[in-house]
Amino acid sequence: MTEPSFTALTAAAARAAHLIVDAEPRIFTDELAEPLLGAYRDQLLAYHRDNPEDPILAGGRTQVLCRSRYAEARETPQSVVLGAGLDTSAYRAPHTPVFEVDLPRMQEWKRAQLADAGLAEPANRTFVPLDLATGDLAEALVEHGFDLARPALVSWLGVTMYLTEAAITRTLRAVAGLAPGTQLVADYVLPARLRDDVGAYYADAVSQVAERAGEPWRSCFSPDELTDLLRDNGFGAVRHVHQRDHDVWPRSDALSPAELFVLAHASV
């Protein structure tokens, strides 16, 4: 079987490990992340169990948990998850149609893990196989039952840093063409000059690992730069949410905010 995305695995492992190694209260609860790791579960979770205070692992958990917490707190008549990977949000929003957009090979692997774990397919979730670099997002969504007349929440998490600005622009234009009231929540990486020491340390380590895994970081933006890019491509109001802005601090465990990953919340 095709190998899954390395970054999809590590994101799911971070969500699963949070329930094992971090203190209460939980930042975000995903009880389905662990079974979706399949044969990678023991190895990936052992890293977190054995090193719960490691700054790289704790930083990864912080990033993944904060972005998921924020995105899933938004109410919407329908949801689109771009680069869905091992996302499980459809199970937590059973009355909301959720359209997961990803490469066919990743969706095939995910289906296999769901079957192996004995997890039923949620009735509200629809897989939309698409390569965003070459395919037509709106056309693919409509083919799978998406209602172009209704606004949506589009989550694009853990993806933009692996894309060129041209590829990001292409997707932004597609999302901006959806119904008025559509919201986009996407995370992005700050340039080196805007990172704090913790963020710089994390970036140096993780970007090298990602590159060795065949998924190099290709883009970074300042908030002003991304605001301009969003507005130039059809978005109106834009809000930037730093990790320090989330209502989860302070904590008694190893999780803490850093200046590296930021969420952009923009409206059509």
Structure in words:
The termini are far apart. The protein is α/β, with parallel strands linked by helices and 268 residues long. Strands 3-2-1-4-5-7-6 form a 7-stranded mixed β-sheet, sandwiched between helices. The model has no long low-confidence stretch (mean pLDDT 96). The chain is globular and about 50 Å long.
Number of strands: 7
Sheet with most strands: 7 strands, mixed
Query: Which percent band covers the strand fraction?
Result: 5-15%
Low-confidence residue ranges: none
The DSSP helix count reads 10
Tell me, rounded to a whole number, the average pLDDT: 96
Tell me the radius of gyration.
17 Å
Spell out the key features of this protein.
268 residues, globular, single chain
Q: How is the secondary structure organized here?
A:
Blueprint: H1 6-21, H2 33-36, H3 41-50, H4 55-72, E1 79-82, H5 89-92, E2 98-102, H6 104-116, E3 125-129, H7 137-143, E4 153-156, H8 165-176, E5 183-189, H9 197-212, H10 223-232, E6 238-242, E7 261-267
Parallel strand pairs: 1-2, 1-4, 2-3, 4-5
Antiparallel strand pairs: 5-7, 6-7
Helix pairs in contact: 1-3, 1-4
Briefly, what is this?
The chain is an alpha/beta fold and 268 residues long. It contains 10 helices and 7 strands.
